[in-house]
Amino acid sequence: MNFYKDCLGGELTLNRFEGSPVEDQCPPDMKNKIMHSNLINNDIILMASDALCSGELQEGNSISLSLNCSSEEEIRTFFDKLSVGGQVKEELKDQFWGATFGMLIDKYGVNWLLNYEKTPYQ
Q: At 97, is the secondary structure helix, strand, or coil?
């Protein structure tokens, strides 16, 4: 989450299982894991957790995050920062739906889709 804070800016809060009302219900290896994290920067709210609902973690294509940006400058800044150490899948470019759009996989294996609507939604 600190990496995403560096990329997106904003204020980050982290709440661990340790010290929470559910601490006694957690296995010992969960105590230092993040129960809730929030990264808030104006209209952007990114939430995450270390807790798996069930099953084993499958790194890679388990999720994709879509980020709608508010300006050309913002999408380029976020795209450049998120792609450091990762892999660009599709460079930022103008699309037929009237937006600038690009895709990448960040250094943690998370898929990102970034979009900037040049004509705001009505």
A: coil
